[in-house]
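User: Hi! I'm working on a homework problem where we have to compare a predicted structure to a textbook description. Could you give me the structure for the chain below?
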Amino acid sequence: MAKKKESDTLRQRRFAQQEFLRLKKMQNGELDAGPKPSEVYEAPKTFGEKIKNIWYHDRLAIIIITIIIALIAFLCVQCATKPEYDVTVVVYTHRITGDVNCEKIGEYLEPYCKDVNNDGKVSINVVNCTIEESQGNTEHKFTTTYNLNTLILDDASALLYVTDASSYKELMKRTDDYSFLEGEPVAFQDDFYDFCKDADNLFTMPEGLQISCRTIDKSALIADDDNIDIYYEQAQSILKGLKDKYSE
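Assistant: Happy to help. Predicted structure tokens:
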């Protein structure tokens, strides 16, 4: 037993001496130390290991790219599904009316509207910008006025304005060197009110409504729109259709 124990002790001493000599040679540069365990790269073998390796090293870039692609896809869908209208009609009166009545105005004008975007149907966008003249500075009046100004400044397709006598005078005062609305307005006749009768249970259709086309002046921002001639021709076609109907 003592002999075996002595042999183990000698073996351990010999191994320690060998390791000591090996370390000395490494320190003196006589022996290559070899790569550190942390420097040994083992290439991933399976597909799953490759995916994990890519995710470990490039996960931040992958997340950023995924978010960008998702945003681009969302914007593309929004643009693809955004409806394209053949004409935009702004209803601006100093008496509030409902969206249902505005929709009926669009239906009434539809027979005189052309399919200018060639999608096989006539689509009229009627924007409700009606306010109560005695309303004061309420949130509704502020929001409606803001929407109206946005249409005037930025929407070249919004050339037709349905007004009453009061709102018509207000719009005409917007410009000094030219008339905001050109020509004489076309007043809606009795058949218009019969067509829109009882459309909205909450709001009645304002009386004395008329429709006009906006003047396309060189100083207006919308004059630079590439499709301004198409929008203007559409507006004139609708006004002519109403005039011909009322002259019968």
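For your comparison, note the following. The longest strand covers residues 181-187. The beta strands are 87-92, 124-128, 158-163, 181-187, 210-214. Good luck with the assignment!
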